[in-house]
Amino acid sequence: MIQKIKGTMDILPEETPLFRYMEGIMREEAEKYGFGEIRTPTFENTELFVRGVGDTTDVVQKEMYTFADRDEGRSITLRPEGTASVARALIENGRYGDPMPLKYYYIINCFRHEAPQAGRSREFFQFGTEMFGADSPAADATSIALAASVLRRLGLKNVKLHLNSIGCKSCRPNYRGALVEYYKSHESEICDTCKKRLVTNPLRLLDCKNPECAALAAAAPRTLDHLCPDCRAHFDSLCRMLDAMGVEYVIDPAIVRGLDYYTRTVFEFVAEGIGAQSTVCGGGRYDGLVEELGGPALPGIGFAMGLTRLVLAMRECGTADIEPARPVLYIAALGARAAECALGITERLRREGHIVECDLMGRSLKAQMKYANKKGARYTLILGDNEIDTGVAALRDMERSEQREVRLADFTL
Length: 413
Ligand code: ATP
Ligand code: MG
Hints:
The protein is of the alpha+beta class. The chain has helices at 16-32, 46-53, 58-63, 83-92, 137-153, 172-184, 192-200, 211-218, 229-245, 289-292, 307-317, 336-351, 365-374, 385-390; strands at 36-37, 43-45, 65-68, 75-78, 102-111, 123-132, 159-165, 250-251, 263-271, 279-285, 300-306, 329-333, 356-358, 379-383, 392-397, 402-407.
């Protein structure tokens, strides 16, 4: 028996209505805020993610699905996230003449080789947005408000926005110095990975999930205390704008985000009651990314939310029960003539836009009615020789237990 790959999932017809419902809300909200959908390839040159996500990040070092293509010497990677691909697409398609800012959204599958658990899988789904060309705090506030708006419409009352600023190229070295000094004095207490991080990427130390490291991180120097005046003003202005827009947040110096390209604003929406993987949405500003990938200096801000974690959070809030579509009508047929007639009427009504079913199994009348009941058909119609001869049959409303006579040739629903 061939089984699915560990960490992947089958989403069955009972569950797809919930995903479609969520995706519908995501599309509607993104489009309300003026974002257009972009679709990029599932796989890219490995170099894109090494440069775009950052070669010292966990994603690049440990989690990517990378393989040699059949074309010699080419390394390919299944996308672990969406931002780098969107930035590449904007550069490759030279979209600089478009009205600024550029606003894109996507709903994609992503791939990361991680330990599968509740809320963490190897193929997962993200809704994300990216805005390029605007460095004003209003752009950050708008992206955050869009994310909050989606979460609100999904009925998530248990999520909180955590907000921080990690500064820019000019204040980062200053902060990094303070951080390295702090961790040097605690070097014996940190995990082996963090000892390496202290050399390669000290900011990542704050992101470590090891309990002892996390305790040290809580008392570590805070980026907010080391911002340059421009970054400070940007952050203060963002906070005032969120207040004006009625978006609630808590300032959380512990948010640093796992990817290398972030500058200034970083944020996470965290859900209560869904276990350890509680970040349903993460995002931030990435002013150096487009340039890093060979484009012009275009600032950017974006976020991504994980659909399966959102499902867990919606279950927690009792908003995840989205019913699959039910047939409006089931036409039961008795005998060969009636079966042909049933197919004809079924097809006519489907062309009119209705969900209609009839027997495809050659079942008894009783079994056909049982099927109709299981599928939750609102109306049923029973066809036998008599109905075919008179051209009239009884359309039964299963909810109200009423029926009325209809003409087979032209009745509508
Ligand atoms: P985490 O700290 O949970 O690993 P991350 O910082 O690696 O998250 P991002 O790269 O910011 O995650 O991705 C954005 C969102 O995508 C996350 O907040 C989460 O909801 C979702 N996500 C990330 N990795 C996974 C995964 N392996 N399985 C399911 N959802 C995921
Ligand atoms: Mg991760």
